[in-house]
Amino acid sequence: MTTSLYWHTEGQGSDLILIHGWGMNSAVWQNILPALTPHYRVHCVDLPGYGFSQPTDAFSLEEMAQCLLDNSPQESVWAGWSLGGMVATQAALLAPERVKGLVTIASSPRFAAEHGWRGIKPEVLQAFTKQLAEDFQTTVERFMALQAMGSPTARQDIKWLKQAVLSHPSSQPEALCAGLGILADADLRPNLHDISMPWLRMYGRLDGLVPVKVAQELDVLAPRSQRQIFAKASHAPFISDPGHFSQELLRFCGECLPSC
């Protein structure tokens, strides 16, 4: 692994990669690591230009996924949250022999709403892009608040998430702008039939960014995948419901990888 990407690695055994979402960094996984590391060697990455990772020219979805593939273990379960789920899915499409299992968390193959597809309204993403240029810090903090919106423990979740994210350097504006572009434009739906490895899709029933009805759409588009919905969670189920989340993730990893 090169120094251009920051990795936090803990545990022993087979490899599990965790990829954060837009505006965040690898610190968001801190609270579930104690449940995972006795069983797997867990690699938490800062995406290019986020946190401790150096900025690169890898701003497209495919380039970002390839950057992680070039700097990660040869065979792993890949788990990605939100934008990170899209990166993990792209990695599974680029190098299926490297990805032993795919986990997408509060993620979608198409984040922007269109023609009956449920998602984030394009004007909301456009507003975030405009606000990012005008007031970088406030825009990122506003997005943090959206992560927990709807959760019964929203205030506590937002406070914890903010503390975790601020423990790393601020992400680069160029990387954040490129990430918003991916959320607005990328569409992996036509490629989902090429995903051959085991795939677990995890959702929060109260999620306002990736509506839970997307899960029903993907039941049709990806009929071989598994679905898990957390009843009391919103966009960050590993924060709202860490115990249940860790249990389900370990169960799935056990189907894909040997545990130590």
TrEMBL record:
The positions annotated for binding substrate are W22, S82, L83, F143, M144, A145, L146, Q147, H235
Q: What is its EC number?
A: 3.1.1.85
Biological process, per Gene Ontology: biotin biosynthetic process
Q: Where in the cell is it found?
A: Cytoplasm
UniProt-annotated catalytic positions: S82 (nucleophile), D207, H235
Question: Could you tell me one molecular function GO term of this UniProt entry?
Answer: pimelyl-[acyl-carrier protein] methyl ester esterase activity
The record's keywords, sorted A to Z, are:
Biotin biosynthesis, Cytoplasm, Hydrolase, Serine esterase
Where the protein is mainly located, per its record?
A: cytoplasm
Query: What are the AB hydrolase-1 domain coordinates in residue numbering?
Result: 16-242
GO cellular component labels: cytoplasm; membrane
Reactions the enzyme catalyzes: 6-carboxyhexanoyl-[ACP] methyl ester + H2O = 6-carboxyhexanoyl-[ACP] + methanol + H(+)
Instruction: Give the pathway annotation.
Output: Cofactor biosynthesis; biotin biosynthesis
Q: Which family does it belong to?
A: Belongs to the AB hydrolase superfamily. Carboxylesterase BioH family.
- Function noted in UniProt: The physiological role of BioH is to remove the methyl group introduced by BioC when the pimeloyl moiety is complete. It allows to synthesize pimeloyl-ACP via the fatty acid synthetic pathway through the hydrolysis of the ester bonds of pimeloyl-ACP esters.
How the protein assembles, per its UniProt entry?
Answer: Monomer.
What the entry lists under PANTHER family is as follows:
AB HYDROLASE SUPERFAMILY PROTEIN YCLE, MONOACYLGLYCEROL LIPASE
Protein name, per record: Pimeloyl-[acyl-carrier protein] methyl ester esterase
Q: Which organism is it from?
A: Grimontia marina
